[in-house]
Design a protein that fits this description.
This protein has 14 helices and ten strands. The chain is of the alpha/beta class and 357 residues long.
């Protein structure tokens, strides 16, 4: 009966950790994987929710404000779309836009589904709109870490900010942080995200050790925006202290679009989040003390001072007539230096636990 109660208690304790003591927020990055279709966007929200993500994130931009008419595609974009590198980035982005009203509809749908809505703004007007509809967290994308105007505008909202650092060095990050702080943001509201801007990212470019660099240099929260196709790396980042994980996902990796090839399929997203939650629970407390589950084993595994041979009342305790053996229900062996030389207050038979001195 006691063992059943113990198992139930452990279950309740673990459940509490999972539900109430999350240390990691997982962002399922829908991005532009809706291909400009609001119905696909709704479906992406459903997938994110069913996968156990905390947040689903889209993007808000107007192609006219994001790129020049003659801007070329990135190599990975052209490759994923099976186009030449000289193809127009403007034309590609124009097809991937979501209207402002669509963003509001998606936010309302997220509220209904009980998953947090985010959308990355790529210009000041988009940021103002998202702030107006009540978005509570803002992401500065890697490409805008040097965008003074966007940094200034987002900082003025005084809301939580995730600062993505793809393509950046420490100087770039310091400069961005100066602007964010200058215009009203506290460091406690900033999470610096390690990121690599290549889709998909190769393992030798991940550089998770940078998380330790961020913690050492900037003394703030750190996160990891993962562009590999690996589902284990985010959980490794969590073990290194990441409190935010971001990962692209898609309905189908074979869909036509710039980011699908570097995105997880629905089942992979769910598996990745499951791995994160396991690490999250196992990280536990910073305090080293006997855990609830260990306490029942302490008296069994530890040792007590016992008589190594028969001892008569009045005999002197010596290193030859006392030793230490299990169980640990008597005096701690750490007291042996204090006991040696003292007189025994009673008779002890061999293997009997010494109770006092």
């Amino acid at each position: 009966m006691k063992s059943v109660k113990f198992i139930i208690t452990i279950f309740i304790e673990m459940n509490s950790l999972l539900k109430n003591k999350k240390i990691v927020r997982v962002i399922a990055e829908a991005g532009v994987n809706h291909n400009g279709d609001i119905k696909k966007a709704y479906k992406l929200i459903d997938i994110a929710k069913n996968s156990g993500a905390d947040i689903v994130k889209f993007q808000l931009f107007k192609a006219e404000k994001l790129v020049t008419q003659n801007a070329q595609m990135a190599k990975y974009q052209a490759k994923n779309l099976k186009l030449s590198k000289s193809s127009s980035q403007f034309d590609m982005l124009k097809k991937l836009e979501l209207k402002d009203i669509d963003q509001k509809r998606l936010k309302n749908y997220c509220q209904k589904k009980k998953i947090q809505f985010m959308s990355t703004p790529f210009d000041e007007d988009s940021a103002v709109f998202l702030n107006k509809i009540g978005v509570s967290i803002f992401k500065i994308p890697s490409g805008d870490i040097t965008n003074y105007l966007l940094l200034k505008k987002v900082a003025s909202f005084k809301k939580e900010v995730f600062l993505s650092t793809g393509m950046a060095n420490l100087k770039d990050i310091r400069n961005a942080l100066k602007i964010l702080k200058k215009f009203g943001l506290k460091m406690s509201n900033i999470t610096i995200m390690q990121c690599n801007t290549d889709y998909p990212t190769s393992l030798d470019d991940v550089n998770l050790n940078v998380l330790n660099t961020f913690k050492r240099y900037f003394k703030t929260y750190v996160g990891y925006s993962d562009h590999t196709l690996d589902i284990d790396l985010p959980s490794y980042a969590v073990a290194m202290g990441a409190s935010v994980i971001e990962k692209h996902f898609t309905i189908n990796r074979n869909l036509k679009g710039p980011d699908h090839k570097a995105s997880l399929m629905p089942l992979e997203l769910k598996q990745m989040i499951g791995k994160i939650r396991k690490v999250e629970v196992s990280m536990g407390s910073h305090e080293k003390k006997p855990t609830f589950s260990e306490k029942k084993n302490m008296s069994i595994a530890r040792k007590s001072i016992v008589a190594a041979k028969n001892i008569k009342k009045g005999d002197v305790f010596t290193s030859s007539n006392i030793t230490c053996k299990r169980p640990g229900t008597g005096l701690s062996p750490m007291l042996i230096p204090k006991i040696i030389g003292k007189l025994s207050k009673k008779n002890y038979k061999q293997d009997q636990i010494i109770k006092n001195y």
